[in-house]
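<backbone_tokenisation>
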Amino acid sequence: MTNKLSHYINGELVQGTSGRYVDVYNPAKGEVIARAPLASIEEIDRCVEVAAQAAESWAEATPGNRAKIMFNYLALLKQHKDEVIKTLSREHGKVLSDAEGELTRGMEVVEFACGIPSHLKGEFTEQVGSKIDSYSVRQPLGVCVGITPFNFPCMVPMWMYVMAIACGNSFILKPSERDPSTPLLLAKLFKQAGLPDGVFNVINGDKVAVDRLLEHPDIAAVSFVGSTPVAEYVYRTGTANNKRVQALGGAKNHLIIMPDADLDQATDALIGAAYGSAGERCMAISVAVVVGDETTDKLIEKLKPRVQALKIGSYTDAEAELGPVITKEAKQRIEGYIDAGVEHGAKLLVDGRGVKVADHEKGFFVGGCLFDNVTTDMTIYTDEIFGPVLSIVRVGDYETALKLINDHEYGNGTSIYTRDGDTARHFTRYAKIGMVGVNVPIPVPVAYHSFGGWKRSLFGDYSIHGMEGVRFYTRLKTVTTRWPTGIRAGADFNIPTMS
């Protein structure tokens, strides 16, 4: 019998009442394992009402008490690590080691949030004027919302709700309907950690839910991660309804390989960054920009057999390196891009189409694909494929490589492999990209720095987590004070100055 999932509202699981459901798959098996409810407008409104009531009392909790709950939450996440990882892999498809890495990066945000008393400290200046002092504080916004993608059902929500709640807000998470069980589990663990009911809620839904959340007058802020067209829609709709919005969109991440690079390191980097999580990462490296034909040929000699040898299988296989993609439709879309690459004249060195895994013949598997001689007018270069497809672009010099990256509409992440400090420094200075790496494959910032791209990879003024997260989920208030001294100075009709 198929498991029927719930919403999580006011500290308890709540059955859906809209009558609308969506199938949730095990992508490795290609089988339906659960049905998730799709919320109605009335259910959304009830959830917002609960969150708004909880926000008032939670804002009064001291930062120290919030931190204690974060410490408890961190301990519970470690204690239930295996349960979280298996739940995640079963619905997403990523191998267990990748799921563990995702949870670990999410827990690092919780670790950062444990220091919230320090992160919320304001500034104080004595005697800004005669017997006048001034100070600043950061105060919570109220009800915040997170709309998150399928590819990181644990880590990306934790980038949002952990920081928002630590800052004194209540939170409503609308996770992907593709893999909603992990967020529900995370919510239950948060309650066990001591979080008051109503502060963290999870509501499943589709565009009906998203639109209502973007329009609801009692919601103060919205965080989003997903494709660029939807990110732009969320940003424009949310801001039009007077909400603070951070909307992280798509990517086409390039890795430059210079002639002086360590090609063994570069090969290792590309294998993990291009094919890890079946390429379903906004920080996946999908384009290798190689300087010089000789360097390209040497790289391919090392890279091609590694791609061919990738172990493809279910998360239940401890040796699997590459799991399935999320849906049958995603598999068809990715294979359509591969077909187009061949049609447009790129050289397909490794073909991952048609892969079958024993005992998982209905699974949504796509093997690792490697293209050479890719040009910038091909769709496999211009578009975010979101699959295990790596394109090699040959260029003659570093300047051409840098221009190619800077000319792309996306500006999420990039990296360079080189032994030359001058080249590396120039690249980090002049790459028009939000996250840049030198001899690292995926330049995802640690939790106490902030994550965010440039150009059409980010809509809004704030990046996510770290101190940018603290600033996004709080409002700055500046207070100026003078206490009576028994001396009247008389009325002053001028703008106050520091005189």
User: Anything to note?
Assistant: The longest strand covers residues 132-140.
